[in-house]
Design goal:
- Chain B: One of its GO terms (molecular function) is glutamate synthase (NADPH) activity.
- Chain B: It is an enzyme of class 1 (oxidoreductase).
- Chain B: Its EC number is 1.4.1.13.
- Chain B: Keywords: Oxidoreductase.
- The complex is a heterodimer of chains A (about 300) and B (about 260).
- Chain A is α+β, with helices and mostly antiparallel strands.
- Chain A has a single domain, classed as 4-Layer Sandwich (Glutamine Phosphoribosylpyrophosphate, subunit 1, domain 1).
- Chain A has 8 helices and 15 strands.
- In chain A, the strands form 3 sheets. Chain A has a 6-stranded antiparallel sheet with strand order 7-2-8-1-14-13. A 5-stranded antiparallel sheet of chain A has the order 9-10-11-12-15. A 4-stranded antiparallel sheet of chain A has the order 4-5-3-6, with helices on one face.
- In chain A, β13 and β14 form a beta hairpin.
- In chain A, α6 (about 215-225) crosses α7.
- Chain A is globular, with a radius of gyration of 18 Å.
- The two termini of chain A are about 30 Å apart.
- By secondary structure, chain B is α/β, with parallel strands linked by helices.
- In chain B, strands 1-2-3-4-5-6-7-8-9-11-14-13 form a 12-stranded mixed sheet, with helices on one face. A two-stranded parallel ribbon of chain B has the order 10-12.
- Chain B has a single domain (about 30-260), classed as Glutamate synthase, alpha subunit, C-terminal domain (Pectate Lyase C-like), CATH 2.160.20.60.
- Chain B is globular, with a radius of gyration of 21 Å.
- Classes of the chains: A alpha+beta (about 300), B alpha/beta (about 260).
- The interface of A and B includes residues 28, 262, 284, 294 and 299 of A.
C-alpha cells in the first residue's frame, strides 16, 4: 500500500504545506503509520538542514532529556568546528531540529560529522529542500511541525503503511539522496534488485540510513544527475536498471518527476493545468485541490515538470 | 469521522475501521426517487443508505452527490434501479452489481465494475487500471480512457472504451467483448482463452496467443447496435482480435482418469 502525492506550482510560491497535508490526509487509509513531507521553499544562499537527535519512539526514560541537551550541544559545536555559521536554530520537537547555516564546505563531510553523533540522523540538507517526517497521519505531523504556513513551489509526500521494517522516523519517506543536496524521493512499490544496487552504491561511498528499498532510488537518481544526466534521463534509465514494481516521484530544487514501471503495477493519478501539476496514488487526494479532469499515466512513463 | 451505531467500537487503533455502522437515513426521498449527499458520510454509511433506499423503501432512482472519489461505493446491489453518481468514485466502484443502471459523471479509480453480473454502468470520465476486472455480464461504457489490464479475466459482458487502454488489456479473458476506440498498450489479449477484442486505434503489441480474427456481419451488427444504444455516434472501423488457441494444450481429463483411458 502506501500513498504518495506530489504538487508543483508553475506560478510562484503557494501554501504547499497545507495543500500536501490535505492530499495525504485524504489517503490516510493507504498508510496511517507515519507521514513525511519534502517541501521546497525559496532557494537561498544558505543551507537548511533538518535532523533528528533520536527516533520518535525511542524510550523516554534513561535520561532522554539530558541526552537531547548533550546532543544539541554537540551538534552546535561540530557545526562550528566544520566552519559553518549557525544563522537560525529551531527545536521543532523534543528530538527534531531545523538549522539554517552559512557554509561553503563539503556537504558530505558536514553530514557525516553530524551523523557520527549517537542517535543523530540528517533528514535533509539543501538550499531549498526541507524534509519533515514523523509518526502519525498527515494532520498530526503538520500541526506538530507547523507546516500549514509553509510556502514554496513544490513538494512531495508519503503516507506509510509499514510492511517490511519498523514504524519509526528512519523508515519513513521521503528519502533525501545523501549526500546530494535538494534531491528527495517518495516511492510506492518494491524493488527486487535492492541489494545489488545497495552494494554498488555503497562501493562508491554512499551510506544508507535505512533498510528501505526506496532510499536506493534517491541515491541512484542523484548519482546519475551528477554524472551529467538530466532528471528525466536519469529517471528513464532507472526504468531499465531498477527491477520490481514501482511508482515513484523524484524532486529537485526546480523540478518534479514521476516514473511508472513497465507493468503499471502501482497506481498514479495525474492532474495538469497551466497553474499546477498534482500527482497522487488516488483521485481523492487530487479532489482536495481541484475538481479538474484527471487520468492515470500508462506503463513505463516518465514525466518531469519544471516549477 | 464515522458516526457509529449504539454499540461502541471495540478496537480501532488506526481509526480506519467502521464496525457497527448504520444507515444514516439522510437521503431526501420523494416517492420513487431519492437524493443523497455523500459529502460527510463514510463508505459504509453510503452503501448502507443505498441499500435502505433500494431494498427497504423500493426507491428506483437515486442521485448521489459529492461521492468524493471514495472507494467501494455502490457495490453489490442486486436489484433493478437507476443510480447516478454526481462526481468521481475511487477503487472498486459499482462492483458485484446485478441489475442496476449506473451513471457516473466523473472518473473512477481501479477495478470499476469488478465482477458485475448484469446491468449497465456508464462512466463519463477516465477509468483507472483493471476496469471491468472479471466482468461476468452487462455493459460497461467508459467515455474517457482506461488504465492497464482493462477487462482482465473478463468472463462475459461488454466493455466499451472510447479512449485508449493500457498494457495487458484483456489479459486471460475467457468470454465477452471489449470495444476499444483508441489505442491499446503492449500485451493486448495476452493468454486469452476466448472472447473478442475490437481495437480502432494502434495496438502497441499483441500478447501471447492473441491473433487477428476474421470480421463477420455479426461483428458489424454488434458494434452498430452498442453504439446506437449508448448514443456514441458512428463507430470507427475496428480490427478484431481473438484467441489463437495455440495454448490449448490441456485436456479435460484428470490425471487419474487419463491413466484409466490409456
Amino acid at each position: 500500500m502506501c500513498g504518495i502525492a506530489g504538487i508543483i506550482y508553475r506560478d510562484g510560491e503557494h501554501d504547499v504545506g497545507r495543500d500536501l497535508t490535505r492530499m495525504l490526509q485524504s489517503m490516510k487509509h493507504r498508510g496511517p503509520d507515519s507521514t513525511g513531507f519534502a517541501l521546497y521553499g525559496p532557494v537561498g544562499p544558505q543551507i537548511v538542514v533538518r535532523y533528528t537527535l533520536a527516533d520518535a519512539n525511542d524510550p523516554r526514560g534513561m535520561h532522554f532529556d539530558e541526552r537531547m541537551v548533550g546532543n544539541r550541544r554537540e551538534v552546535s559545536s561540530r557545526l562550528r568546528s566544520a566552519g559553518a555559521v549557525i544563522e537560525e536554530l529551531e527545536q521543532e520537537t523534543a528530538y527534531a531540529d531545523r538549522a539554517v547555516l552559512t557554509y561553503d564546505g563539503d556537504l558530505k563531510t558536514l553530514t557525516d560529522l553530524l551523523e557520527d553523533i549517537q542517535g543523530c540522523e540528517v533528514l535533509s540538507l539543501g538550499h531549498s529542500l526541507e524534509i519533515v517526517k514523523d509518526l502519525g497521519d498527515a494532520e498530526a505531523v503538520c500541526s506538530q511541525y507547523g507546516l500549514e504556513t509553509f510556502r514554496g513551489t513544490h513538494a512531495i509526500g508519503h503516507a506509510r503503511m509499514a510492511t517490511e521494517s519498523e514504524v519509526d522516523i528512519s523508515g519513513a519517506h521521503p528519502y533525501w539522496a545523501y549526500p546530494f543536496p535538494d534531491v528527495a524521493v517518495v516511492h510506492n512499490g518494491q524493488l527486487t534488485n535492492y541489494f545489488q544496487w545497495r552494494r554498488r552504491l555503497e562501493r562508491s561511498g554512499h551510506r544508507f540510513q535505512s533498510e528501505c528499498d526506496s532510499e536506493i532510488i534517491a541515491v541512484y537518481v542523484a548519482e546519475r544527475m551528477t554524472e551529467g544526466y538530466t532528471l528525466e534521463e536519469a529517471m528513464r534509465q532507472s526504468l531499465e536498471e531498477l527491477d520490481g514494481v514501482f511508482t515513484y516521484m523524484c524532486v529537485t530544487a526546480d523540478a518534479l518527476g514521476v516514473a511508472k514501471d513497465e507493468m503499471a503495477a502501482k497506481p498514479l493519478v495525474l492532474y495538469e493545468s497551466d497553474q499546477l501539476v498534482a500527482v497522487a496514488s488516488e483521485g481523492t487526494a487530487i479532489e482536495t485541490l481541484t475538481d479538474g479532469d484527471t487520468y492515470d499515466p500508462y506503463e513505463g512513463e516518465v514525466m518531469v515538470w519544471q516549477r | 469521522m464515522a458516526a457509529v451505531g449504539e454499540r461502541a467500537v471495540s478496537y480501532d487503533a488506526r481509526g480506519l475501521a467502521e464496525p457497527n455502522a448504520v444507515a444514516p437515513e439522510t437521503a431526501v426521498v420523494d416517492g420513487q426517487t431519492a437524493e443523497l449527499d455523500a459529502a460527510d458520510l463514510s463508505i459504509r454509511q453510503i452503501n448502507l443508505e443505498l441499500r435502505r433506499l433500494v431494498y427497504g423503501l423500493g426507491v428506483t432512482d437515486v442521485v448521489v452527490r459529492n461521492p468524493g472519489s471514495k472507494h467501494s461505493l455502490g457495490v453489490g446491489i442486486l436489484t433493478r434501479c437507476r443510480i447516478r453518481f454526481e462526481g468521481s468514485l475511487g477503487y472498486f466502484a459499482c462492483g458485484l452489481l446485478d441489475g442496476p443502471e449506473v451513471h457516473i459523471t466523473g472518473r473512477v479509480g481501479w477495478a470499476a465494475c469488478e465482477n458485475m453480473m448484469s446491468g449497465v454502468v456508464v462512466i463519463e470520465g477516465n477509468a483507472g487500471s483493471q476496469t471491468g476486472a472479471a466482468l461476468r455480464g452487462g455493459d460497461l461504457v467508459v467515455k474517457g480512457r482506461a488504465g492497464a489490464r482493462s477487462g482482465i479475466d473478463q468472463k462475459g459482458g461488454t466493455i466499451i472504451t472510447m479512449g485508449s487502454v493500457g498494457a495487458m488489456t484483456g489479459f486471460m479473458m475467457q468470454r465477452g467483448r471489449q470495444v476499444i476506440c483508441g489505442d491499446a498498450g503492449p500485451g493486448l489479449g495476452d493468454s486469452m482463452y476466448d472472447g473478442t477484442i475490437y481495437v480502432a486505434g494502434k495496438v502497441k503489441a499483441l500478447g501471447i496467443d492473441c491473433v487477428p480474427g476474421e470480421w463477420t456481419d455479426a461483428d458489424t451488427e454488434f458494434i452498430e447496435r452498442k453504439f446506437r444504444i449508448y448514443d456514441l455516434g458512428s463507430p470507427p472501423s475496428f480490427d478484431k482480435f481473438v484467441c489463437g488457441k495455440k495454448l490449448y494444450n490441456y485436456d479435460s481429463l484428470e490425471p487419474a482418469e487419463r491413466k484409466l483411458v490409456l
